[in-house]
Amino acid sequence: MKFITICSILFVAAMQLAAQEKREIFFADPTIYVENGKYYLTGTKGARDPLGFAVLESKDLKTWSSPSGSNDSLYMILNRGDQTFGTGGFWAPQLFKVNDSYYLTYTANEQTVLARSQSLLGPYRQKEVAAIDGSEKNIDSFLFKDDDGKYYLYHVRFNRGNYLWVAEFDLEKGKIRPGTLKKCFDQTEPWEATPNFESAPILEGPTVIRLLDKYYLFYSANHFKNIDYSVGYAVSDSPYGPWVKQADSPILHRSMVGENGSGHGDLFEGQDGQLYYVYHVHFNQEQVAPRRTRIVPVIKAWDPRKALYRFRVDGEKVIVPVLSEK
């Protein structure tokens, strides 16, 4: 009888786990935008139709659904061919608002792109269908607004590897300001190139914030297929650098959150005032895709000796976002 009871418990637990996995969210390179008491999540949803970007909303970061009033199981905010650049490879979006307009920057056809909408929920379109800079391949765009009103485009360019670059950005024209393009840094740290997956140098997935006149650049390193894909940060007195990589990097790694391939996401402040990082992880120990979405609290602490903030994640409080049951 005891054996039958144990088997029943294990069966129920397995069924519950399977049910949760079916409800899990599979956005890679995710980002979360916060407005009017709600969270909005989007990211790379892969090559399945329709191509473009979908969005989910939540009030608590844990349970997500299509936006209120929508009957669509997949609410698209940008669609391929709908006055937008790109035929494939829709990756790594970022949502932000300027005055009364909303913007979506993203990657398609290995080019960075900027689209605009009068509504947070889109549709996001372009007046002129074009990439930001078609002169060469560039991906993983992140637009940062400094306190003086200037915008900077952080992104990735290729040269026998992926490297982070920055340039001042003209938001009205949707273009990089000539003569301002600068490389951020090279691959230099052991954690940025572990032997678990051989690859060219890879530094990608930038997010930038400013705190007390210091600039903090968070980025991912290693190939995304590497189990050691992870997140570190560098600090500068200028949006252009020079950047000083911090010795406590990586701050997000499988050893901290218990899942492989943890990286490439975005920082955001929750409605509770807590700082969070949304990111993706591998599907399981043996399989990379489809990548699962995760959210983790970030602890920010002032270091008076260095006169800057230190960051670490609270790996005991990882949130597994799931779709609401209908």
Biggest sheet statistics: 5 strands, antiparallel
Q: In the CATH classification, which architecture applies?
A: 5 Propeller
End-to-end distance, in Å? 37 Å
Work out the number of β strands.
22
What order do the helices and strands follow? HEEEEEEEEEEEEEEEEEHEEEEE
Corresponding CATH superfamily: Glycosyl hydrolase domain, family 43
- By secondary-structure content and strand pairing, the structural class works out as mainly beta
How many structural domains in the coordinates? 1
The CATH class is Mainly Beta
Tally the helices: 2
- Overall 3D shape: globular
* Rg calculated over all Cα atoms: 20 Å
Mean pLDDT: 93
**Which runs of at least 5 residues are low in confidence (pLDDT < 50)?**
3-19
- Could you state the oligomeric state of the chains shown? single chain
Helical coverage, percent range = under 10%
Topology-level CATH name: Tachylectin-2, Chain A
The percent range for strand residues is: 35-45%
Descriptive keywords:
five-stranded antiparallel β-sheet; four-stranded antiparallel β-sheet; Tachylectin-2, Chain A; mainly beta; 326 residues
